[in-house]
Amino acid sequence: MLGLDVCEAGGQLLELLWLALCYRDIMADKEGVTLSLEEEEEDADVALAYKTPEKKSLREIQELDPGDESLRKYKQALLGAIPAAVDASVPNVQVTRLTLMCEQAPGPITMDLTGDLEVLRGRAFVLKEGVDYRVKVSFKVNREIVCGLRCLHLTYRRGRPVDRDVFMVGSYAPRAEEYEVVTPAEEAPRGWLARGSYRVRSLVTDDDKTEHLSWEWGLCIKKAWED
Hints:
The protein is of the alpha+beta class. The protein is built from four helices and twelve strands; from the N terminus they run αββααββαββββββββ. The strands form three sheets. Strands 3, 4, 6, 9 and 10 form a five-stranded antiparallel beta sheet that branches. Strands 5-12-11-7-8 form a five-stranded mixed beta sheet. A two-stranded antiparallel sheet has the order 1-2.
C-alpha cells in the first residue's frame, strides 16, 4: 500500500496532467471564449467566463497523442495500464474502511464501510482523552480518475455542531489494489468538559461534488480506555 507522501505526490501529478490536458483544450477552443466584467457597488470583481473543457475518460486520456512517445511513457508511468472492465453497477469510488490509528489503544478501532452502515449509527468508538491519533481512509478507484477526493467529518454533541474537519485525500487513477491514506496526527480533547458522547457525520466527496459515501457513527471520549 502507498504511504501518505507517495499518495500525495501521485495525486499532485495526476492533477498536473489533468490541468495540462484542460489547458490544451482551452487554447484549442479559445475563439469560443468570451470575457465579461461585472462591477458591484461594494467592490469590483473581474470574472473570466470561459468554456469548460469536456471531461475525458481514462481511456481517452490514454489514447491522446499516440505519436508522442515521451508523453505515452509519462502517462503509462503515472496512470498505469487501462484497468480491466468493471461491472457498471459498481461505484467508481468504493470507500471500504475508516480506521482510528492510536498506538496506545488496546486494539484496532476500525469501521467496515462495506456492510450495513446503520450498524455504525448505534455503535460508539472509544478514544481516551488526550491521546494522539490519526485517521486512515481505505478506498478503491475502479474505472475513471477521481479528482480532489476529500473526507468531511461534522461532529455534534447534544445535537449541536462542535467541530468540522475536512481532509484532502487527493486525486487517484483506477487500479486493482486499494489505496490507503493517513491523516496527520491529532490530539483527542481532554478534561471533564470534553468527556462524553459525540455524533459524527462523515462524507466522502470530490471536486465534481459526487457523494461517494456518507454515514454516521458515535464517538466517546473517556478518561481511560475502559472506564
